């Protein structure tokens, strides 16, 4: 599977779940201990809003603080839809992954940035499904691709506090269970 296809499928999976958020669910808790459903959607939406800027070569300083705080406003779904549409266009445009992008980790190959964004969309789609009590099944091919990307790096990422420590699951568990467990979530 091409990287841009994985990104698009992960984006679609998160999008489907955003559209299922009920009016009374925005304050519901998620597996991300400090985030409500709204906080989680705000985080992922903010990440997507950044993408077109970074893929155009802008620096973090040039983007500035415009996406700090609440980006969802009074119509979270509409803001998400716009952010997703613009990010998808940016990631899938001609030559989009050819040049490195500026990230908080420094100048990063755009393909690595796309993998990170696919990871973010995938794991948070599961979190969002759990927070809204909807279908949490992930695209199996995307989950496999993300797991293959994350597994060799997770030890180095643990020190940054990005993910909770891995949860133990059977080595022959389905890839979705192994992925969410690797990222500190209890698949049960």
UniProtKB/TrEMBL annotation:
Q: Which GO terms label this protein's molecular function in UniProt?
A: metal ion binding
Supply the Gene3D superfamilies for this chain.
Answer: dinb family like domain
Question: How is this protein named in the record?
Answer: Tigr03086 family protein
The Mycothiol-dependent maleylpyruvate isomerase metal-binding domain sits at 9-129
- Source organism per UniProt: Streptomyces xiamenensis
């Amino acid at each position: 599977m091409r990287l841009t296809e994985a990104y698009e499928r992960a984006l679609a999976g998160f999008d489907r779940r955003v559209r299922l958020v009920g009016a009374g669910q925005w304050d519901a808790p998620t597996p991300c201990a400090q985030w409500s459903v709204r906080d989680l959607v705000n985080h992922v939406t903010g990440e997507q809003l950044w993408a077109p800027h970074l893929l155009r070569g802008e620096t973090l300083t040039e983007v500035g603080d415009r996406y700090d705080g609440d980006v969802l406003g009074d119509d979270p779904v509409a803001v998400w839809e716009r952010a997703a549409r613009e990010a998808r266009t940016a990631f899938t445009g001609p030559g989009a992954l050819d040049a490195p992008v500026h990230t908080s980790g420094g100048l990063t190959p755009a393909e690595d940035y796309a993998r990170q964004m696919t990871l973010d969309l995938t794991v948070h789609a599961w979190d969002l499904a759990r927070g809204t009590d909807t279908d949490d099944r992930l695209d199996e091919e995307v989950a496999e691709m993300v797991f293959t990307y994350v597994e060799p790096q997770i030890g180095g990422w643990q020190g940054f506090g990005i993910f909770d420590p891995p949860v133990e699951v059977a080595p022959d568990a389905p890839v979705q269970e192994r992925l969410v467990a690797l990222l500190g979530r209890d698949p049960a």
